[in-house]
Structure formats: C-alpha cells, structure tokens
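Second attempt. The first submission of Tetratricopeptide repeat protein had a stray character pasted in from the spreadsheet, which I only caught after the job came back as garbage. Lesson logged: always re-copy from the clean sequence file. Corrected sequence (384 aa) follows.
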Amino acid sequence: MIRKSILNLLLWVLVSSPVLGQKTDSLLALLDTIQGDKKVKTLNELFRANLTSDPVKALSYTREALNLASEIDDKRGMAASYNNLGVAYRNQGALDKALEYYITSMKLYTDLNNKEGIATTKNNIANIYSIKKDYGQAMRYLEESYNLLNQLGDQYRIIGSMNNLGNLYSDIQLYEKAHKYYSEAYQLSEKAGAAFADPLTNIGNIFFRQGNYQKAVEHYTKALSIEEQNNNKLGILNIVTNLGITFTKARQPKPAQQYLEQATNLSTELQAFTTLPTIYKASAENFSNLGKWKEAYEMQLKYDEAREKIYGEESSRNIAQMEMVMDFQEKERELDMLKKEDEIKTLQLRNSRLFIILVILGILVVLALFNLFYLDKKRKLITP
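This time the job returned cleanly.
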C-alpha cells in the first residue's frame, strides 16, 4: 500500500531548519520567564516545532502543556493540547486513542465557539476515518472542515484541506478529480512562498497506481528534496517508504532495499508505527523478488502482526463507540439550545401577554376616568 501524505492542520512547519532551530531556542528561553496561559501556548508551540524532527520530545511538551492548562482552567490551551496528543498517537498507530483526544479537543473548541479549532479537529478526525477506510465519514468531516476554513479565509490550512480532499478522491479512484485538488494545493503553496511537498507526493501516488513508476519517482524525489530542506523527518519517512515500494514494483531490488531499510530505521526512531505494516509488506515482496524466501516469510509475519495491532477489530469497535458518544454529545448540545430557545420564546410570550393585559387595563382606566369626568360635568350642568 502506497503511503498518502496528509497535512495535519495547525502542525505545519513552513520554515527551513536553521530558522526552526532559532525558533525552538527562543521558545525554550521564554519558558523560564512566562507563566499561566502564555506558558501553555509556548509549550504547545514547542510541540509543533519538534513534531517532525523529534516526536518523542514533542509529546512531552504537549503533555506538560495539558497538565498546566488543566491546573489553571485554560480551556483553549487544553483544546490545543488534546489535539496535539491526538496527532502524536495517530502517528504511533494508536488510532482509537487519537480519536478520543480529537473528540475531547473538538468539544472544548465547540464550547469556546472557536471555528479554527473545530476545523482543525474535524480535519484530523477525517484522517482517522480515512486510515480506517471509512470514506463516507472521512468525506463528511473533511468537507465540514473545508467549509469552515473557507469562511475563515485561512489560505495555508485551505491548502492542507485541499490536499486531503484529493486523498479521499484518490482512495475512491477518482484520480482526475484528485489530481486537480493536488495541483491546486501545490500551486497555492508556491504562491504563498512555501512550497508543500505533500501534494507532489500524492501526485506521485497517482502515477504509481497507474503503473507509471518513472513519473512517480520524479515527483517523490522532488518532494523529498523539499522535506529534507525543512528537516521534516515524518515527511522524509513517508516519501522514502513510497520510493521503496515503487522500486520494489519496478523490480529494482537494490534501491528498493536501501529505501525500505531507511524507512524502517526512521519509523522506529520517530515511533511512527503506522508506517511499519506498509514497510514490512514491501520488504517481504522485495525479498521474494530476490529469491530470499526465509527473509520474505519473516517480513510477512511482521506485517501481519503490525497490521493487526493498528487496524484490528477492537480498535474499530472502540472508534465506533466513541463516535456514538460524540453524536450523543452533539444531540445534547442541540437539545440544550432548543430548550433555551423554548425558554426565550415562552418568556417572550409571557411578556407579550403581560403587555396586552397592561394595555387593556390602561384603556379601561382611561375610559373610567373619561366617564367620571363626563358624569361630573353633566351633574354641574343640571345643578339648580
């Protein structure tokens, strides 16, 4: 299975590695001088700064951010931390845990009416469903995210959303439509002054599926150059995995094995375990091409074990349960809103009735006064 490139909103590193290093140093220098929600925000920024190069360190920063945000009741900081935890666990292959964190994040962002945060978490929830091949749910969340981003006019995140919509159309084999989204996403990123590798990688994926391995390698190589300039290790992992698979299919075992070994080492280093089933399966096929049957069999066993761990039935069941909880929470919010609207309408009706009664009483008082005045005047006229 070829690896898609998925842009995680709020987690892009759009600067070169020297600038990123300076940013990380400045953020670390801030930690000793700030407190409260500012420190929470800085810790979450450190998560984003370290995610692609050192995800283990990144995870420790966002855990610290969550602990502090919980202590000081910083709801926005908590929402960002839960989203970041979801991203970290998704990369490790713990899909049900990732979804749990995303749902918690989205609930907090919804309570805050933070549309940017809602769009981000919906995008990430869509990615989970895409991995699980539930394309209907993935499309639902991704379209909702895309519509929100368009309302906000956030160009960078729109690029990521367009890329991910391309992924979904590619998954259901609507390659022409997918290619259109990828091309537009890449062109927008160039205009923004920071070319994204992901759309190029995904265009390479289309050529791979069409059997045009030469074109696929060209796009992967161009994308790899961008990721290496940005020191995006997760992006590098994704692309070298695809290069390993492509050379395996093209029956060029030597470069295939080099890329697959590099991918295995990177996956372990970054704890990006969702990549391992793909690497093991391609390695088994490559060893088979070389006639190394024992190694091929061992890799197939590793593939089966890793795949079951990530895509197993228990994980699917947990996700379904959490989806039910999320739907129930949404319905509860809708019911609360309806109750509040009903209370307002009831209060308005009572006020209207009271106003009508007061008007009628006012008219009656005026009439009574008029009658009294008229009768008194009449008495005076007939007095002897």
